[in-house]
Specification:
This protein is α/β, with parallel strands linked by helices. It is 41% helix and 16% strand. The protein folds into two domains: 8-33 and 245-334, Aspartate Aminotransferase, domain 1 (Alpha-Beta Complex), CATH 3.90.1150; 47-242, Aspartate Aminotransferase, domain 2 (3-Layer(aba) Sandwich). The longest helix has 27 residues, at 244-270. The chain is globular, with a radius of gyration of 20 Å.
């Protein structure tokens, strides 16, 4: 299993700090989750059914003009693992740095993996059968325009290849999303992954969507099996996707929080950071030492090795903001 953020119990054991005493900024999950209304008892008693309005709400939210091009899954991770086995081809181009599960899933499916930097997207797609990237990318926040991704998809189409775009962090800034085009016309070889875990703060519900050509979705549906998303999770997702007023307010909260976090990290001597509305990434040769120093103060952030960097999620409360600022100041004074 690859290392991911949010492993708070492991951190508590490693550093000897009680679970309740941690400030967890390691995940990139929105600190204010969607307030899911309590489901009626029947939601727990009955198996989930497709005709509950979830797909219609998702189609409206993602702009797919219907439900034939989207499929609900138990988190976009399920698609990341399944797609390399379904799409075929032996040459898989994976963005680096990037979400580690992309390459792991491709290798598990028996494919040769070739990493590429964001600047080398076109060259990678000219040689690959399948390309996988995040937009915005995790952990560095690099973004790709729609036109650039459509051009990359055309290069792949010349080899009967596919482009998988993970849009887990795009909800706060959706202008460059390809969800409305994926699986149609010239974008038929584009697969878009979406998740309710980050922007909606519902990672525990494990709900994601694949947006793609209907023929591919049918193969994916068969591979995943029936009742893929639990009934209570479908209930939560349907309400969240339909609540436009909450979504608008959430975007404002996240944008303001990301800007504040960028200022705080800059004042702490970490320079200008990259990222999204949900996290900031600081590239620093002191990543290992700073990660350790923060952890000893009960602040958990995500560390990356190549390049050496730390990713900071957004604090949830004013006390959390003050605690992070105090920890960074204390570390700087001790240096």
């Amino acid at each position: 299993m690859l290392e991911h953020g949010g492993r708070l119990r492991e951190a508590a054991r490693r550093w000897g700090i009680p679970l309740a005493d941690w400030l967890d900024l390691s995940t990139g999950i929105a600190p204010e989750p969607y307030p899911v209304p309590p489901p009626p008892a029947v939601i727990w008693q009955r198996l989930p059914e497709d005709e509950d309005g979830l797909e219609a709400a998702a189609g409206a939210y993602y702009g797919t003009h219907g439900t034939t091009r989207l499929l609900a899954l138990p988190g976009s991770q399920a698609a990341i693992q399944a797609l390399p086995r379904l799409l075929g081809g032996m040459n898989v181009a994976v963005i680096e740095p990037g979400y580690g599960e992309y390459a792991a899933a491709a290798r598990a499916a028996g494919h040769a993996v070739q990493p590429f930097a964001a600047a080398g997207l076109e060259a990678a797609c000219a040689m690959a059968d399948l390309a996988i990237l995040g937009n915005p990318n995790n952990p560095d926040g690099v973004r790709f325009t729609r036109d650039r991704l459509l051009g990359a998809a055309r290069l792949l189409a010349g080899r009967c290849g596919w482009l998988v775009v993970d849009e887990a962090f795009i909800d706060a800034e959706p202008a460059e999303s390809l969800a409305d085009l994926a699986g149609t016309g010239a974008a038929e070889n584009i697969v878009v992954l979406r998740s309710l875990g980050k922007f909606f703060g519902l990672a525990g519900a494990r709900v994601g969507f694949v947006i793609a050509a209907p023929t591919l979705l049918e193969r994916l549906r068969e591979a995943i099996g029936p009742w893929a998303v639990a009934h209570p999770a479908r209930w939560a997702a349907r309400h969240a996707l339909a609540d436009g007023a909450w979504q608008a307010a959430q975007r404002e909260r996240l944008r303001a929080g990301s800007a504040r976090l960028g200022r705080l990290l800059r004042e702490a001597g970490l320079g200008d950071t990259m990222g999204t509305a949900l996290f900031r990434c600081a590239v620093t040769p002191q990543a290992v030492a700073l990660h350790e120093a923060l952890a000893r103060r009960g602040v958990l952030v995500r560390r990356f090795d190549d390049p050496a960097a730390l990713r900071f999620g957004l604090p949830a409360t004013e006390n959390d903001w003050l605690r992070l600022a105090a920890a960074l100041k204390e570390i700087a004074c001790a240096a």
